Amino acid sequence: MAAPHAQATQEENNIRHNWTRNQVLELFNQPFNDLLFDAQVMHRRHFNPNQVQLSTLLSIKTGACPEDCKYCPQSARYDTGLEKEKLLEIDAVIEAAKAAKASGSSRFCMGAAWRSPHDRDIPKVAHMIREVKALGLETCMTLGMLSEQQADDLAAAGLDYYNHNLDTSKEFYGEVITTRTYQDRLNTLANVRNSGMKVCAGGIVGMGEEQKDRAGLLMELANLPHHPESVPINMLVKVAGTPLADEKELDPFEFIRTIAVARLMMPKSYVRLSAGREEMNEQMQALAFMAGANSIFYCDKLLTTPNPKANSDMQLFQRLGIEPEQYQMEKTSAEQEAELHQTLLEAKTDAQFYRAS
Ligand code: SF4
Closest Cα to atom 7, ligand 1: which residue? Predict the structure, then answer.
């Protein structure tokens, strides 16, 4: 069998959807320098290594979520002292989106702590999508599970991305969440993909899972019929009052390995260095960029947990020679039509896969 290094080289132009866990573990367990080198080579094939995409995340409805995700301060089941907020008014969302754009973000992500949206909420969030898009920003939402119809409605409103994380491996999942199944999550991802929206799906590491679970998470994501365009890798933020508050630290190098393996397995996806950045020093963030991370959340708060200040991000970018990626909004209608046609074709094939899995 080819060494992982050679294997990565052979497959550099070959987007795979048939990873086995052992193959993923082989990638994880290469010498650190070999793994980072391969990941950086792969990264350079598909992206400018000195550009990072900036997203701003706003909580549009906070707390009181009926789900039991053990890491989440927004679950109504845990006493974290979080102040609940109802769905924000449209003006507050527009204000925040304008500020995000002014500070250099290209994508505006809106998150609501729902199990799934009520149908009556869809027109309100559709209004938010239209207004934010009108500012020249890409839009993303994370609202919980979506039905086919809801996904279609959000796509019709112009939503570019929908975020729904798999969180962890299939096997470890039940240790973290019991109120919705892994298959529920896959179904939502299928509804999003079939609606023509781009998929943002990743997970959280440092929740007490083993390396085989981190490998399992990346295997599930990479073996989807279409890789998520955006793959957030979160480091657990331990919030007092949540069941995972006292979880032991994950080795930072293992976090970097997870980023690098994600880059190798999903070469064309944006890999986002997401939650947990507040606790990472600059050297670790620089290593994550070297490993192939090329997107960050750029705002002072991530839904409810702290994030590095925008200023310190810009200073770090300057020191590393990194510049924010610009969003190209202006596509011709012919380009848009061709893109939509291609997405719908792929969605048809994807639908067969999801039904079969
Ligand atoms: S992660 Fe989302 S679904 Fe889970 S408790 Fe938090 S807000 Fe609810």
Answer: 113
Enclosing H/E stretch for 132: helix 122-134
Q: What is the pLDDT of residue 56?
A: 87
**Helix and strand numbers, DSSP H then E, in the chain:** 13, 12
Could you confirm whether 299 is annotated as catalytic?
no
User: Ligand 1: residues within 6 Å at CB?
Assistant: 65, 67, 69, 72, 74-75, 113, 144
Say which of 65, 185, 193, 299 is annotated catalytic: 65
- Closest to 276 in 3D by CA, of 306, 319, 321: 306
The residue whose CA has the least distance to atom 2 of ligand 1 is 113
Kindly report, residue by residue over 122-149, the tens digit of the pLDDT: 999 999 999 999 998 999 999 999 999 9
**What does the pLDDT look like over 318-354, one tens digit per residue?**
899 998 887 554 444 445 445 545 544 554 444 444 4
Question: Ligand 1 atom closest to Cα of 65?
Answer: 8
At 43 the pLDDT is 94
69 exposure class (CB count in 10 Å sphere: 0-12, 13-18, 19+)? buried
Choose the catalytic residue: 200, 214, 257, 263. Answer: 200
CA of 207 to the centre of ligand 1 (A): 15
Query: What's the pLDDT score for residue 81?
Result: 81
| Cα separation, 195 vs 198, whole angstroms | 9
Which of the following is catalytic: 107, 140, 180, 277? 140
User: Whole-prediction pTM value?
Assistant: 0.82
Q: How far is the CA of 66 from the centre of ligand 1 (A)?
A: 8
| Selected catalytic residue, list 180, 193, 263, 272 | 272
Q: What confidence score (pLDDT) does residue 207 get?
A: 96
The residue ranges of the chain whose pLDDT is under 70 are 1-14, 299-310, 327-357
The domain 47-356: what is its CATH number? 3.20.20.70
What is the end-to-end Cα distance of the chain in Å, rounded?
A: 29
Phi-psi region of 107 (alpha: psi -120 to 50; beta: other; left: phi over 0): beta
Domain boundaries, the chain: 47-356
| Spatial CA neighbour of 160 closest among 223, 106, 235, 122 | 106
Distance from Cα 177 to the centre of ligand 1, integer Å:
9
